[in-house]
Amino acid sequence: MEQGTGAEPAGPDAGASPGHHSPDLFRRPEDHLRMLFARVPATVWTTDRSLRLTSLAGALSGRVPDGAPAPLGLTVGELVGSGDPVHPALAHHRAALAGTSGRFRSRFADRTYDVRVEPLQDEDGEILGCVGLAVDATEEVEREERLRRSEARLLESQRLARIGSWEWDVTTNRVDWSDELFRIYGLAPGEFDGSYEAFLRLVVEEDRPLTESAILTAVRTGGPLAYDHRVRRADGAVRRLHTVAERTGDGTGTRLAGSCWDVTEARAADEERELSLSLLRATLDSTADGLLVVDQRGRVTAANRRFSELWRVPERPHRGDDDQGLIEAVIDQLEDPGAFHARIQELYAQPEAESFDVLRFHDGRVFERLSRPQRLGAEVVGRVWSFRDVTDRDRLLRRAVFLADASRLLASLDAEQAVEAVARLSLPLLGTACALDLLSDQGGPRRLFVLSQHDRPATFTELPRAALAGHPVRYDDEGRSFLAVPLLARDTLLGVLRFASEPGRRHVPPELELAVELAGRISMTFDNARLYVSARDALQARDDFLSVAAHELRGRATSLQLALDGLRTGRLAGDRRQRTLDLCHRQVRQMVAFVDELLDATRLRTKRIHLELEQVDLCEAIREVAAGLSSEVSTSGSTLSLTAGGRIVGRWDRNRIEQLVRNLLSNALRFGLGRPVELVAHADAQTATLVVVDHGIGIPKDRQEAVFRPFERAVSSRHFGGLGLGLFICKSIVDALGGELRLVSTPGTGTTITVELPREGAA
Amino acid sequence: MSDGWILIVDDDADIREMVAMLVESYGFETREAANGAQALERLRSHGRPAMILLDLRMPGMSGPELMTRLHAEPALEHGPVVVLSGDRAARETADELGADGFLAKPVTVETLLRAVDTFAHRPPPPAGTSGAFHPAP
Q1: Do B34 and A580 touch (CB under 8 A)?
Q2: pTM over 0.90
């Protein structure tokens, strides 16, 4: 402490008793005073005018212990160890000799004392010497020092922590701010008038209501209460302050104190972190993958909403949930729970491992499962499971593979076998049972096959009407879901393909689409097979025709060869010569007719017949043709009876009518087995009817249509001559004339061909 | 005067007529059949011919069917059988059927009559031997 500067004159009472007594007066009570001063931390002494100690009572601790002989006779300078006149002890003692009292604080023997020195006067006021009093102030000084340092440290801490403090005396509306608070507000001490209103003005306007409300609440309740508000600094910058306020003082609620610090950056960082977290959460929840993160002990760390959706668990797993519970909740959905479980165990045993596999569900869903270790730095702290629903993709892939396999199988000419193989292939994909019913012109549907994956197959009852009408349809029957898809080729319904699901499972639209696609390919296979058979038959028919034609030509050539040789060698004379010449003419005529027939057939295959219409008598034509066939009739061994009296005139083409009659009769004679052949012609006003009956070999039912096709014959060409063009040409002529040709035939009994011709010619 | 009769089996009437005229001019009688059934009828009615000229492809009973019937009915004597066919591949068929000779249509008078010479005047061959006749090309 500074030494005392105030020089005050020694008053009449100053120095108490010493001022009123000579040093001799103290001798008697000396012992008493010594005892007294030993009890208090103070020392009293007197000096003479030369500043030699004349009395001493009390302890100058350390140097002059109580009870020790008093250092009387020493000068003050000797006592304090200094001759320096400005030494406070010397200066004050001298001043006292000059009549001035003084106080000072001084260190002596490692202690600090508050010292008072006054002049020692006799009754006349003459200064005899000095009287001094020293009180040990060492502890007080140290206490003050500690307090000072503590305050300095607090201020420094506040400054460093940017924590300001304030106190509001509500009653007087006086606000005191700490230095740091001024710095926080960016204000100099004079720039804040210390009122509540002045403070409020510094708060950003939209934060004022909340701030006031918080402060008043703190005043009312006593706090502590924390709140944030933004302030506008003198430099215009807006800062966010966090304040904790509490009522202080004697509990009357008139003072509120608070600490307050700048949280602008901290709040910004908080907001940043909040944003990142919310972004992460939003991302997790919007991803199409189901995510589950578990720690090393298999406890859930995180899971997103999609995870719950995918696995159909009612609630999103919580942090800390046991994964065993989760596994038990979902495992029954899987086709192969064992493998699912094994994989999890395997991965828990290998924290570093990554894995990828595919999970198949009973209900047809397919998930991809990806698993990776979760790392914090280099350390594995858990595992991330990611699940992706790839049902649609898997279905498309399986569909593509299936269709490719099916197409390969269907590239076979044995359609029925190929289709059955494809149906077998389709079973796990489209159902557990499959049936194919083929439709034909004759009779109802024919069950080609029914396949089943189970011992107790589904029952395929009546074909649904929609499928028979050509529409693919899904329907339910006896607790099962069925698909029925028509097999259509060139607008013809070939059959219906059906699939049955396992009980309780319903077909989905993509399955119906796949079935339709499959049905299209199967139809094409049937159609191709049919076309193949038809092409093969057509080729066979042409081969047969060529063989027959060759036979016919060789026959003609044989007769002509023999005839010419016979004539050349003169072996045939007289009657034989004439017969031979007739035969040659006949052969030539037949060859010409043969060529005509061939050309006719070729032409008729590509275009309609050309007609030259005129009035033609059918009966006359019949008689003429019959006359021309006399040789064939005799060769055949059959008799020919004609019932065609009178005239049946119509508007027809004469040559075509003759050709028609000739072909019908030739045919009947050729296949008549030598039995009678009958021709009947009659007419009404509109229609002429011609019926040719033989009792020969007849035509099997399945060949009856074929005989009207070019180059086709009802029987093997090895047994019967003729080009096989006859009935085809007949049909073409009748069609051209607008008529109708009907054939009724029974093998072994014979054939009846009925031709009806409109008499007015073609419409 | 007649050397016997020859059975001509062919569904083509003109061929039958030509062959008959030539064979008759060569001193044989002839009988005609338009198919196998008629041929069997002629054999049953008129006994063993000097030879049979047989077409293979005929409506009703064909040539091969007739051959089978002849083999199955040894009592029915028929003499040598020469196949006369427009199908060159029928030469093998003729061998398989056990025919004695084969003539390809169209045939010349010389070839036809040489075959008649060879088979119609030859006594029946000893049992167990086969002497298929193939005319020179």
Answers
A1: no
A2: no
